[in-house]
Please model this.
Amino acid sequence: MAKKEYSFYPGCSSQEGASSSNYMVSVATLCQELDIKLNEIPDWNCCAASIGYGGGGELPRLALSARNIALSEQHNAGQDIVATCAACWLSTREAAERFQHNKTLYEGAQTALGEAGLKLENNTPVRHMVEVLIEDIGYEEIQSKVKKPLEGIKIAGYVGCQTNRPFGIDGESYENPLYLDKMVEAVGADSVPTYEKKVQCCGGALAFSEPDKSQEMIKGIIEAAYDHGADMIATPCPLCQANVEIYQDQINAKYSTKFEMPVVYYAQLMDVAFGRNGKDSALDRQIIKAKKLDDIAK
Model:
């Protein structure tokens, strides 16, 4: 019997072959080490974080998240909903809170769900995976699992914007959240608590519509990490991870920089520190190799 069980909403980008499948692999490994069981919500659907604001309307967007919540309540009753993706967490939690405070939206969602034979109770907490690690597991428990401390590696914790606002992580500052820094320290690495770009937006979907603007923002995020002597950047957000990693070649060509900054997930740091190999930690799926982690993971 697992120590902790949660109803899991993986989201589109974590599927095999998708942009953050490495995130899902590393989280699965992390859960094995910490005795966490994630029960996937059957027949889940997209949360509409990327396309829901494109003209589809407020209720249809929220109703998509309502369906996931209703399915969770039906199949994984009594279990908190947990998402690894920052956008999925934000969309699902926003929907749940909007329904609590807006009777019209709630009744509209119920009507839509009723057509599929579903009903929304909307009494289930919606949490990000980092909340589970901080609040239910704790830094001391994480530290106790470390077999290979990440000594000598300096890591800039890039929180991004979606896990920081509007909800944020309970007890954390909006301007300078420290939970990633504490996670970094728990696995034996050196954190950068004064990293001034830790909550700056990476440009999100502007990477497609207005790439010049997005890449300028990403450039500042990477430069600040280098300025602090960081060996790599760690993040809890799939879109942040993708944007800050994959556009470095284009930024180098545009600005005559020589960026080669690895961008990893907090879960990968923990996996390596817990003694797991590069494949289990999904380090083999990095575009920019995190060589210092690879060396420890061997």
Notes: The radius of gyration is 19 Å.
